[in-house]
Recover the amino acids of this structure.
């Protein structure tokens, strides 16, 4: 009944003397990470730094080497940009919540019930991803537009005519749910499939009802997958722009739309950069808060 | 020795069958288990014992036949409403919960208050020799034996009338397994509950059970006390399942003796039942003796000592007689004094052998 564990101190003592610097840098792991590191530096860190730098430049300037100012941030606070932020976050929250509710039963089916049909269902769900997102959204426009597929059919068959549902916030959520479904479903399926069958059976055997088993065992154990799915869809939805432009028809202006306007029509790169920085801070903060609340390692029982 | 000779019809199985497609995993089991009995179902993997247990626990529904608990049919009663509880092979502990939360789970589901739950939990932990400090410990950090005890405590917290065990000790090392086997039997005595245990190790079954049922291909081949199964196996399968035995295929000979082709010979044996012309003569390794002279035993064979294996308190010898290999086992104090490749004479008396026809 004694368990042998190796404490860090023990491991260090066994490792002996401190290795030379060259050996640390050229350790196989680090050496093999170099290509990725280089790519991240050029493709990820550099543009990010450029955006942050730009956000502190005077409005409507394109010259990188000038005195820094907070003018863009002052402009954002004094204007009504907070509305766009609220719309973006609000739509993303609603879309994420809707997706979580829709996807759980499907994920459960894929992981536990469908058996060999699961592959076919997965394929059908993935297939639309091969068509460009904008193309699919315009497809929905044709479907829902006044005199389009849905209403034209209803009118000619039953003589009923409904007003158009397009160009509303609800339609934007619909578009997000439609487009980001796989990003919620697949991590969730993984999460649900990580719940061992015997553990849920044991809960039932110990007197738990179906609902109690779900609440006490299934949901907490599937949580890593659910959290990852929610984070993915939330981050994607906050950054979404086509849904609001195509299906929303500019009925509401989301923050990504504001950023696009600033960079294009308004030719005010520093303002766009400042809006981007704020959006990144907002999303990053939310993600970090969630990850702290749901310690994935702890949920998985690794710590 | 047997605490389970009370009611004979506590749990009754009548022709219980489970088919998956065309395959009958469990094939017409008839069985009655008494209250407070420690009953073990033994069988090789794929013999249907787990499927049988899952039907008794309410996780599978029989294709046909009936399961009666205290005279009431419980075929379709779901697991969460049966007064039974199972300790799984994987233990199926809740990895996201502490030791205390695991043990208290069935009480929590029943709506028992927190302080009462805690009191019962600590009582069970004491009974199973889990230190009180483990109450808040994450189960994933417990050792194999500790987890075993947590799983048992959790099942006992449910306060079931029958406890099922699906090979819970199979993944545990030999020494600890021996300790836990005895502990389990002690717990059985202390609680007086009905235990139904499945295992593929007859040795494990022997240590703990009041009665044993041997399963093969979905059927119960033999049901009896450990002693009955040891002394009177119904067929070659059961006798071989008991451990290493020497089996000689025989047919009826003259003067009530039996004749074997390999190794060639004529032996004195228990009588063949009427209507049978062939059978198997089973001689346990511990009943084979090394002889100085052929007259020392009713039957004898001449062979060479091929190898010997020390088994702690006993020594096992491999003796080759032609193509046939015999296993002889002796206590260390009665070790055979000789060298490998010696010519040896081994023998046994008819009363030390068993004749089976199946």
């Amino acid at each position: 009944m004694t368990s042998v564990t190796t404490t860090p101190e023990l491991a260090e003592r066994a490792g002996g003397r401190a290795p030379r610097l060259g050996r640390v840098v050229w350790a196989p792991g680090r050496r093999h990470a170099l290509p990725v590191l280089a790519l991240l530096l050029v493709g990820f860190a550099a543009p990010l730094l450029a955006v942050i730098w730009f956000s502190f430049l005077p409005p409507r300037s394109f010259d990188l080497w000038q005195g820094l100012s907070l003018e863009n941030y002052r402009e954002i606070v004094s204007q009504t940009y907070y509305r766009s932020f609220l719309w973006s976050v609000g739509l993303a929250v609603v879309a994420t919540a809707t997706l979580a509710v829709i996807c759980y039963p499907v994920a459960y089916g894929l992981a536990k019930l469908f058996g060999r049909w699961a592959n076919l269902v997965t394929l059908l769900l993935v297939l639309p991803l091969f068509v460009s997102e904008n193309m699919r959204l315009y497809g929905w426009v044709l479907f829902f537009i006044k005199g389009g597929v849905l209403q034209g059919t209803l009118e000619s068959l039953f003589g009923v005519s409904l007003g158009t549902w397009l160009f509303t916030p609800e339609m934007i959520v619909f578009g997000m749910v439609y487009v980001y479904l796989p990003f919620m479903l697949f991590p969730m399926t993984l999460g649900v499939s990580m719940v061992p069958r015997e553990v849920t059976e044991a809960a039932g055997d110990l007197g738990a009802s179906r609902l109690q088993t779900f609440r006490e065992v299934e949901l907490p154990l599937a949580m890593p997958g659910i959290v990852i799915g929610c984070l993915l869809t939330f981050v994607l939805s906050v950054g979404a722009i086509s849904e609001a432009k195509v299906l929303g028809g500019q009925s509401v202006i989301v923050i990504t739309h504001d950023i696009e306007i600033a960079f294009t029509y308004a030719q005010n790169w520093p303002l766009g950069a400042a809006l981007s920085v704020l959006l990144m801070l907002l999303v990053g903060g939310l993600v970090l808060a969630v990850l702290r609340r749901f310690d994935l390692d702890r949920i998985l029982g690794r710590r | 020795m047997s605490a389970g000779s009370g009611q004979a019809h506590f749990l009754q199985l009548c022709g219980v069958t489970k088919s998956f497609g065309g395959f009958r995993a469990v094939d017409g089991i008839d069985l009655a288990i008494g209250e407070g009995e420690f009953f073990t179902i033994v069988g090789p993997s794929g013999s249907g014992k787990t499927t049988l247990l899952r039907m008794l626990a309410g996780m599978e529904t029989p294709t046909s036949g009936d399961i009666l608990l205290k005279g009431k049919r419980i075929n379709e009663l779901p697991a969460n409403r049966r007064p039974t509880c199972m300790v799984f092979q994987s233990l199926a502990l809740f990895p996201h919960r502490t030791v205390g939360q695991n043990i208290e789970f069935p009480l929590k589901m029943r709506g028992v208050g927190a302080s009462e739950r805690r009191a019962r939990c600590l009582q069970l932990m004491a009974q199973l020799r889990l230190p009180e400090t483990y109450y808040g410990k994450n189960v994933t950090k417990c050792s194999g034996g500790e987890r075993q005890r947590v799983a048992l405590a959790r099942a006992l917290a449910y306060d079931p009338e029958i406890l099922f065990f699906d090979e819970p000790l199979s993944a545990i090392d030999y020494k600890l397994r021996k300790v836990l086997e005895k502990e389990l039997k002690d717990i059985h005595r202390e609680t007086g509950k009905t235990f139904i245990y499945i295992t593929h190790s007859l040795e494990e079954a022997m240590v703990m059970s009041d009665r044993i049922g041997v399963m093969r291909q979905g059927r119960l081949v033999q049901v009896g006390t450990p002693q009955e199964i040891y002394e009177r196996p119904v067929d070659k399968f059961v006798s071989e399942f008991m451990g290493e035995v020497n089996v000689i295929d025989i047919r009826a000979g003259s003067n009530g003796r039996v004749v074997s082709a390999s190794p060639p010979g004529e032996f004195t044996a228990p009588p063949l039942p009427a209507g049978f012309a062939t059978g198997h003569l089973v001689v346990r390794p511990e009943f084979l003796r090394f002889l100085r002279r052929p007259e020392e035993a009713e039957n004898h064979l001449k062979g060479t000592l091929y190898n010997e294996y020390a088994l702690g308190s006993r020594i096992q010898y491999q003796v080759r007689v032609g193509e046939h290999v015999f296993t002889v086992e002796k206590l260390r104090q009665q070790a055979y004094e000789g060298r490998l490749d010696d010519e040896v004479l081994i023998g046994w008396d008819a009363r030390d052998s068993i004749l089976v026809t199946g």
The mean pLDDT of chain B is 90. The longest strand of chain B covers residues 299-311.
